[in-house]
User: Fold this.
Amino acid sequence: MNGGTDDGDGEFEVQLGAAFGLTGGGPEPEVTARLVDGGLAAGRRRKRARRRRTVLLAGALTAAIAVGTGVLVAPRDLPGERTSVVELAHSGPDQVPAPLSDGVTVLLVGTDSALDARGEPVPEELLRGDLHSGAAGAAGRPGVTDTMMLVHIPAGGGEVRELSLPRDVLVKDTDGRTVLLNQLYPDAERTALKSLADDGVSGEALRTRAKEAGRLALLKSVERLADVRVDHYAEVSMVGFYRTAQALGGVPVCLNHPVDDPYSGVHLPSGRQELGAAQALAFVRQRRGLGGGSDLERTRRAQAFLAGVVEKLRAGGTLADAARLNALYRALDGSLVVDQGWSPVDFVRQVPALAAGKGTLRTLPVTENDGDGFLAVEGAARSILLGDAPAPPDAPASPAPSAPSTPSVPSATGAPATVRYLPGPVELGGVPCVD
Amino acid sequence: MEEEFVAFATARTGQLYRSAYFLTGGDTHLSEDLVQDTLGQMYAHWHRLSRPSWAGRIDNPAGYAQTVLVRAYLTHQRRRSSSERPSRLLPEVAEDGPDSALRLALVEALSQLPPRDRAVVVLRYWEDRSVEETAAIVKDSSAAVRTRCSRALAKLRGLLGGDLAELVAR
Assistant:
């Protein structure tokens, strides 16, 4: 080693900068021309590929709501994808609950799959950097559905009712086994992958059909759990969420306390603030340090974020402006999966409650279980969503759905269960402060 | 719109190529690939220049392109890391200029740095980015960038030492 005394560092940096500046030999003009032509050709290929894959997808609301769900599925050039899960769920002998008068119910799902809607891996820099997903997202495993929201719009569209379904609620799968709600989709997807592969299905068809099986299992189970018919379905991946947050350009939220959680990568002060895409994702994903570290408290983050998205679009006038809705919608192409035959843009415009900021976001009340997971309070989901029965009381002591005949849950032990967690509602029309 | 892009690409290719040349430690073939890939991505994103700011407008296409280039390189590097090319390609461009000795010495020294350290050095001392900007581009913390930077400087200093002052002064 030569050189190297400490007092020479500054001087060395100056020399290094000068050295870079002096070695400025650029390419010859013909090399430049070749590179520009090559870049142009590469860019055209990219755009063509993207156009081929792109199907009209999501509307601003769906996108916005989906953003709130913290889901993940679609990466950058994701084409839109259409799912026929709603049709499938209502065909055949398996009867679902009667439809709600003229209202519309949408199931919003967020998954943590590391694969985009095309089945391609998320760019590594996203996984290791802003997404803070770490090794969990690295393998090509089917993603769990950590965020599930039912949104009901009554006839007339004058009010939005949202119900968050905790991911650790116990439900029965199609084989009658009791599983956690967030495992239904990946379990069914894995099973389908295996059986379809045995049947010789491969490639894109295998991936798509396996995901459809996952969606179908989840949708039907949610319908049983909540005792409502699901009319529309939207799914967003972590990457889709990230890109949507980017397109929104800062979403207002409000925190009661500062948070600093290295697991999700969230470092935020208290008070009202606008979140960029990376912090938005961390905000809805943080679990450690929130309440008991179960997933129950996290649902409020997603709700607060959703309220912030609606507020952002409302305050900017986007929700009332067809041109801007369409622009946002185009910016989001490929980030969402929605069911066939549904136009989220039209849908948003049919719901005046969104532009008016009228709506209430609630979490499904649950009771403790002996082992893993929680039990849904019977009948609560339908009454909250449809508003046709009083919501369960807030006092944790009162409701005691002991030995419920809940369709989705094995009978509880004799002791009366107490409601484990029943947060107050989050209201649309502002930026609610949450823990 | 296409003429606009071609004008942009023509104007920026020199700078992008030089950055790529340093980033790759003098691998001219890889540099060309990276520049073409970067221009391709810029073309695909060109419509974002005219987006409203709330929908993700690209405000500074030149800076954006440099960032795309560095990230393309780092991605490439990760994918290739298990099979790193053992022999670096020496520059084939004309070496008769007065700066050729300096360039060779600099690139030779750069090529001995780990890829990420090299990216940090190029961003800090070639592109004159601040520590914070560099950190944002390579998706690291500012502290990590500082650490990489001082480690890389120590190594470069050991490799170049007094020669650098001499070559720069020539």
